[in-house]
């Protein structure tokens, strides 16, 4: 991520963030929640979040919202990502690197297959 050097740079970052926030539309078929508590951020959750947004964009997926949350209480397996797809139980994945995030988008979001080796918890939290 580049450093902010001017007000113009800051405005560009704000515009990009607002664009990403539009993905929070409630008429989506799914939602991906990235835990962004201090433990998650320290473990790399910012890069994981960025990878999820990029993977969705790359695959032209516009009906899945991406949101941030505070700590999910699963500090030992951060970064954590919860995937909620319409008609399916929510799944929480742990140790989600940017590479694993791309895998989750491909397998879970696109193909509808749970990425078993990353599952930390199934069902409601």
Descriptive report:
The chain is built from four helices and five strands. It has a single domain (25-122), classed as Glutaredoxin, CATH 3.40.30.10. The protein has helices spanning 7-21, 38-43, 45-58, 98-110, and strands at residues 30-35, 64-69, 81-85, 91-93, 119-122. The longest helix has 15 residues, at 7-21. The chain is of the alpha+beta class. A five-stranded mixed sheet has the order 2-1-3-4-5, covered by helices on one side.
Concise structural overview:
The chain is of the alpha+beta class and 125 residues long.
Let me know the average pLDDT. Answer: 87
Structure summary, number of beta strands: 5
Architecture per CATH nomenclature, i.e. the level-2 architecture: 3-Layer(aba) Sandwich
CATH topology call: Glutaredoxin
Radius of gyration: 14 Å
Total helical elements: 4
Strand order of the largest sheet: 2-1-3-4-5
Largest sheet: 5 strands, mixed
CATH homologous superfamily (4th level) name? Glutaredoxin
Fraction of residues in helix? 25-40%
Q: Order of helices and strands, N to C?
A: HEHHEEEHE
Low-pLDDT runs:
none
Strand content: 15-25%
Structural domains: how many: 1
Determine the structural class based on helices, strands and strand pairing.
Answer: alpha+beta
So what's the overall shape? globular
How far is the N terminus from the C terminus?
A: 32 Å
């Amino acid at each position: 991520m580049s450093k902010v050097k001017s007000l113009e740079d800051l405005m560009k970052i704000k515009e990009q963030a607002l664009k990403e926030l539009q993905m929070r539309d409630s008429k989506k078929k799914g939602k991906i929640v990235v835990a962004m508590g201090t433990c998650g951020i320290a473990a790399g959750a910012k890069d994981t979040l960025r990878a999820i947004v990029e993977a969705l964009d790359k695959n032209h997926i516009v009906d899945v919202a991406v949101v941030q949350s505070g700590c999910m209480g699963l500090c030992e397996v951060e970064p954590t990502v919860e995937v909620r797809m319409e008609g399916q139980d929510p799944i929480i994945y742990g140790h989600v690197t940017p590479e694993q995030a791309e895998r989750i988008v491909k397998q879970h979001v696109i193909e509808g297959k749970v990425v078993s080796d990353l599952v930390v918890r199934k069902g409601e939290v």
